[in-house]
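Consider this today:
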Amino acid sequence: MKNSILIKRVILVFCMMSIIIIGSGCAAKKAVLENQGKTECYLDEKDATKFIYNGQQYTILNNTVDKNSLGDWIGFIQKYVALDENYNILKKCDMGVNVVGDLSDLIDHTDGTAYYVPYLNVYKTENEGDMNNLVVDVDNDFHKAILSENAKDGDLKIIFKNQNDTKDIENDLPQIDKEDVRNLTWEGKIYQITDQVVPNEKIGDYLCTLSGNITFDAETGREFTHDELNAIDIIPGELSNQKRETWIYDSVYTVIGKDKDSLAVEINYKCVYAILKD
């Protein structure tokens, strides 16, 4: 009887842990960013050239700034958005670890799409005390944004690129290798994630965020399916012999002075090197 109760408790705990690992991706990412002092920003549902930061509406301009001129990172949007010709939002989805899957879902559920636009993060300008003007990483560039109440008739709002094919977005962003999640792919090349920590002074430009958790076979790098994660070995067997590992994927950056020979990627809250494979 005691053994039966013990087994039931073990099963219950294991199931709860599996649910947490599987379902915590976007929620966990949001919590981490908010704990880091980043504020979630929201798009205007009727006009994708506008967003809300700290309760105030900002209008995105067509003017761009150099990435080296950014101030502090203060907010995040991190969504893929499908727009019609009038910049109305047709559908949006959170950026996750499966870039291709997210974009496929966007395509499958939207008709009449003229633009597929990635919205990433929000920054202060070089003038840190100026909250009338911000910078937002949108449509693969850093655009100026001004308080909507200060916008003038002569201000040119952002003109989105005609991205009715999501391949442009996929190619621009590092992704997790489907065959081996211990690797990243970027621009047709494979980068192997290491455990070597990147010094803060070597972390370069922000590229994207791979928000989510993946549990995989530590020997092969193969991601476990939901069914495999939910399976339980009552008697030690094949499952007990698996070497499982879980990584929390976060932001990806360039590495200063390394051109494209390596990347910096946040894994389990540490920024480590991902080295270009021969």
